[in-house]
Amino acid sequence: MKKFLALLALSASFIQAASAQQDPKAGKILDDMSAKYQAMKAFRANFTQTLENDKAKVKENITGDIIVSGPKFRLKVNGQEVINNGQTMWTYLKSENEVNISDYDPDDQEVSPSQIFTLYKKGYKYTYVQEAKEGGQAIDIIDLSPEDRSNAVYKVRIKVGKADKSVKSWQMFKKNGNRYTYTIKQFQPNPPVDATTFNFDKSKYKGVKVVDLR
Q1: Structural domain contains residue 203
Q2: pLDDT tens string for the chain (214 positions)?
């Protein structure tokens, strides 16, 4: 469960751009895409995550909903709810009516539906692959490769709309043969959020068991 949540938990750190060794065409597209999302005070997205492993003959689909504002997020996926206010993370398990509380450490996280917008800025080399069409829309395809060879992820492929610079989907390829595809289904810029959006309100979860792991 921890590994699964790590794939979806959010990290929003804004770091200096990578070195001049990077592909300039890919860098321009990624900079335009990143600026689009960072200009928003918040956003909400419905997405589908597909896990595939050809060797193991595995293909699984789950859907999720996420609200993001800076380092804060609220994620609902697969009977779980993960809430992060930038310092504390609450993981609510509906089937158990239990919430686990832990300190939030963005360094523990992997690729996520929010981190994808700034992922390229540190620790990855990027390369322009090609232009293509999907759903009647022109897209640019860019590959990211981690500089750290010990990284369990060996490639991230991002598809960006040419017209609106929005992320349409991305794939994460792992050394164990797993391939995760995230596809954005609906996107809402600047949804209404307040302090209660990114905090766990125990009173709304009758009889919930609290497990404090801090």
Answers
A1: no
A2: 554 444 444 333 222 333 346 899 999 999 999 999 889 999 999 999 999 999 999 999 999 999 988 888 899 998 899 999 989 999 999 999 999 999 987 666 555 556 778 889 888 999 999 999 998 999 999 999 999 889 899 999 999 999 999 999 999 999 999 999 999 999 999 999 998 999 999 999 999 999 999 9
Residue 38 backbone phi and psi in degrees, to 5: -70, -20
Does 154 map to a domain? Answer: yes
Contacts of 24-30 with CB under 8 Å at 24 or more apart are: 25/128, 26/126, 26/127, 26/128, 26/142, 27/120, 27/126, 29/128, 29/140, 29/142, 29/160, 29/165, 30/120, 30/126, 30/142, 30/158, 30/160
CB contact at 8 A, 65 and 77: yes
Note whether 118 and 34 are within 8 A (CB): yes
Q: Which domain holds residue 149?
A: 2-11+28-189
Query: How many domains in the chain?
Result: 1
Asked whether residue 197 is assigned to any structural domain, the reply reads no
Which residues on neighbouring strands pair with residue 165, listed in sequence order? none
CATH number, residue 180 = 2.50.20.10
Residue 212 domain flag? no
- Please check whether residue 59 is in contact with residue 52, taking contact to mean a CB–CB distance below 8 angstroms: yes
